[in-house]
Amino acid sequence: MAKYGMLIDLTRCVGCHGCTVACQTKWDLLPAVQFTRVHRYEVGTFPKVKGGVITTQCMHCDDPPCARVCPTGATYKRADGIVVVDEQKCIGCRYCQQACPYDARSFNPEDQIVQKCYFCYDFIEKGEQPACVATCMAAARIFGDLEDKGSEISKAIASKKAVQIKGTSIYYVPPRNLDPSFLPANFQEPGAVRVWQDIVHPGGKTVMGLAAGAVIAGLVINNIKGGGKND
């Protein structure tokens, strides 16, 4: 089974925002909803100052906390490693946003749902590349199967000595002048996730179950009453 990931070569990225625009166009996103974000940084002190860009997105974590806190199962991890959101199941509670250690999710105020990078899984299933990869004029993005040692991404990770953000499916090739602290941190589960998983979520399921039972009971009672009147 393939496990998909992405390498972002910051020595090639020019910060053109092409990846952001391509993603917004492909998914017909609101201007405020960005799956791929471009951040600028500066290092050094005047007059010896250097700058650059870092792009971030959903990291498609190995054990995504967003999926564990979702009360409806709308967020889940596919067998190929891609973390997705079933927008038909999303109720807009935004728990996943709070659980995400990378602030990679956006709330769509019009549809009242949370959205994120999906690695353009529908493109992948047709043998195509994600929109951000296909549009990158600097060839700063490489996408592929991390399990296939002969894939382009696996070869690039080895030859470019890419840095993996541990616990995720994203690799970076940082420029020489970049302090590693500017890169996204290695995965670390937010403490609130454990509280939700062990205490709030089970209680919430009980409450939801009782509420559902009450609704069903009400429907049955109304049906019985209605039947009595018809007789």
Uncertain spans, ≥5 residues at pLDDT below 50? 207-225, 227-231
| Percent range for β-strand residues | 15-25%
Largest beta sheet: strand ordering: 8-1-10-9
What is the name of the CATH architecture of the largest domain?
A: 2-Layer Sandwich
The oligomeric state is: single chain
> How many domains?
2
CATH fold title of the largest domain:
Alpha-Beta Plaits
Number of helices: 7
Helix content: 25-40%
- The average pLDDT score comes to 86
Main beta-sheet annotation: 4 strands, mixed
How many E strands? 10
CATH class of the largest domain: Alpha Beta
C-alpha Rg (nearest Å): 22 Å
Instruction: Output the helix-strand order.
Output: EHEEHEEHEEHHEHEEH
Keywords: 4Fe-4S, Iron, Iron-sulfur, Metal-binding
Pfam family, one: Fer4_11
GO molecular function: 4 iron, 4 sulfur cluster binding; metal ion binding
InterPro entries: 4Fe4S_Fe-S-bd, 4Fe4S_Fe_S_CS, ET_IronSulfur_Cluster-Binding
